Q: What sequence folds into this?
């Protein structure tokens, strides 16, 4: 008996749940958990069906035939995905990922870490994970990002994680990894877009700070949000103390977003996400 | 076109979603939202199916025939339920309910408020809601609760809400309103069962306090939990300050629990609840 | 024995706590709680000293003499402040205030409610609080706000609370009530400034929504923030559902901000606040 | 110029702040931050005074002379403390500590990790921290804990951290490290004292789970609480999923508690703590 996840993303119409679950039933597949959502305005239907049983090659084609050509239907295996992590100098998000990779609690393997500085090499290599330096020095943004893309593509990862990678990703890179680049931004977007959000938060005198994990798109800090969380601060917090406290939110938010993505719980829907918890 | 909610609670077996949604489809009913859960250990299946369409009298019997005699299947109308609220002296939870009743945001009408003291009569009557005093003086617990039950039953409410009602409910009452009596307890159960939970919390030196909304059962403070929440406190909080801050958690937790119950999102399952958010 | 609060706001220099507490000690005043904060960048010192004892007329002048002319030192009585509340059509924040006014848990009296529509008159009058309609119809913003100001000034309130008052306040009004007009904005500022923040939040696909209580200044939605809080949402939330859930955050945030202001815990410091919890 | 922290714990009486800050002022010491609390019922005064200046040997004796013999007054240096960490098999809390140790963000050094199993040796040694195995096999609780104590004492740590150490600490050990042994318990105490709290939480059907960091005393799970936090769960969570989600709360709560302890922000006061944030 295997376990697989059937992912359906299609135009809404009556009877979709019935049609899909009928095929499952006729194939003797047991539904462990079924989650669906209809985006009413756009009349779009999303469903995540967690299945158990003996799968044969006719199952997926039959679901597709039931739903028609327009439907985007996928059947994915449960199990570890492959990641490449991009970093700059900050260790906290990367450290969390490496620790979970080491403990086997990440539901993915980190195949490589690529940095535009060398400062995190030592940490990465302590965990027997390859580290590659792709320095940006003397290169245009496009040239550098192209070299990073080449380095990433050697590993054919399922997802690319920006763990406090402080460089802008070019359209070329994003086209190669559409909806597969995940960033952690150190503010509760859309507040404090751009550089130095903790300094901005301090200057504005806010009483909460936060972090946002999102898919990266061509528009800076404006991609589909996967997960957000906040913590309370007060007048005693300097910008540095906000940054320090914020790190814990950043790594937790990135971790939760990744967990959802790696378990195939996240659909991208225009500039939003549907996350089946 | 009407909207109704189909509630299924039955032994788990393969094909349940398919069987139920097939009947919906054949009756031309559109599923706006479908939520299901399987309690694996007990092999119990719960589903809430929010439907739109023209319902005829054969629909529910057909679902029942598909699922067999053991299944507990109900079809409920969307729309306002009827409540009776029991109170003692504290106004904050009651006040919230009255305000939402007044604003029409409660999804229920408060048909009466019954108190064992008269102190809240003035507040209740300002909202044109009947208030009845059923004093406990000179009565045994059983005698008093019996009189309260008689007063409640005149209104045939769907649910009885204990809005800081500081008396124990007798088995006679609970048998008349099985899984229909909702209490707000001023601690995050199972911590601080019994009297004066804020004093207990102060004495123990906790850093969080909370509130719990639950269905009332014969076992004190031990019924199925519907909703809980907490707030942070610190050494500056006296027991009185904890009680004051706790009131906001109490009324919010009761409000959220009631919202879920009134929208038929809550199944009772042994001593637990399944809450389809 | 009386209780009073000494509030100090002055340029930072060594020995301030010593100088102030020495005067307290020599006057036989006991310090129940002392809280201080230095804004390092601006070298500004804030202190809230909660005192108990027999106060005589020489106490405050002596503190002032110790600190010099530049210091802003005030001695305020514990006790109820006076409020005027401005509203438009939404009942939830106003309802919370009225209920606490009624229960005596607000630490203030609501002397009047002024609305630019008449819809909330019935609710207000149920609590025996005067309601005044100052319609904006046919008036320019300046003319209308001037009439509102005249209506407010009849009551000489300590603070003016905008409980979902959906009109912009003019500089004339703000000059009359500098740092004494408190607004509740239905987003976690600085995200979603301006109109329809829940629609903006829905369109952006955020996973948290929030509310912000702040002092009103000439710059829209940009005054000193007193309190903020958030709740989690997900893809199931329409803009309307966000608004509905957001109401609970709005009223709680406004309530907490008011509590702090009414207990003289809030200093305004440039465009920020110092809040001694 | 140095920075030190003056910690005062004494019977409450009028003028304490004045007396202490006078000595500071006369010694030319600048108060960066002063925090005080009076436990009213016990008439006990606590103050944390963060000082900057040139300290000489007469300063502390003068403060002591002012306050009398009964007062417990200490002057501590800012700066890294020394820790020994006890572990069993779970990596997540230890991993967090090692990562912060490595990054230099812990405000302490981990001088050794001692385990009653060998499973975490590999992780610890990757960070160049000594790991010692003190197996409990074949030993009574007292014998084993005595051997652990001997191993710990070689390092003369300031604090001993139980990072998911699943053994009971004996009175002998606690006498050697009174109020210096910090444990992370995987429930929001006092709920779910004892073994398998996540299974208990699952069985009870709670909607929140949490973690508690506390000083260890002779009474199991009943020592002074330093920090607590919770996360929401629902019916979808198995006991295992609660444990998995709970790990993030555990490591955050332990981290926050340690941060406060290491910055000398925590006073123990009977069975409670005063934590100056």
A:
């Amino acid at each position: 008996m295997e376990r697989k996840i059937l992912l359906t993303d299609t135009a809404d119409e009556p009877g979709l749940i019935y049609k899909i679950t009928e095929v499952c039933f006729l194939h003797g597949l047991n539904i462990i958990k079924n989650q669906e959502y209809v985006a009413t305005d756009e009349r779009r239907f999303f469903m995540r069906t967690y299945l158990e049983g003996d799968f044969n090659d006719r199952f997926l084609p039959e679901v597709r035939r039931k739903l028609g050509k327009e439907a985007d239907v996928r059947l994915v295996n449960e199990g570890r995905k492959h990641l490449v992590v991009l970093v700059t100098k900050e260790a906290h998000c990367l450290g969390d990922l490496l620790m979970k990779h080491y403990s086997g609690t990440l539901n993915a393997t980190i195949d490589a870490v690529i940095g535009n500085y060398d400062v995190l090499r030592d940490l990465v290599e302590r965990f027997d994970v390859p580290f590659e330096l792709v320095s940006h020095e003397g290169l245009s943004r496009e040239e550098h990002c192209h070299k990073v893309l080449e380095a990433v593509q050697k590993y054919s990862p399922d997802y690319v994680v920006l763990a406090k990678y402080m460089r802008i990703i070019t359209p070329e890179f994003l086209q190669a990894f559409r909806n597969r680049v995940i960033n952690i931004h150190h503010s509760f977007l859309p507040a404090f877009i751009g550089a130095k959000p903790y300094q901005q938060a301090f200057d504005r005198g806010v009483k909460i700070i936060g972090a946002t994990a999102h898919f990266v798109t061509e528009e800076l800090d404006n991609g589909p949000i996967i997960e957000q969380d906040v913590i309370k601060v007060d007048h005693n917090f300097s910008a540095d103390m906000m940054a320090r406290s914020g790190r814990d939110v950043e790594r937790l938010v990135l971790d939760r977003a990744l967990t959802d993505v790696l378990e195939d719980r996240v659909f991208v829907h225009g500039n939003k996400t549907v996350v089946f918890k």
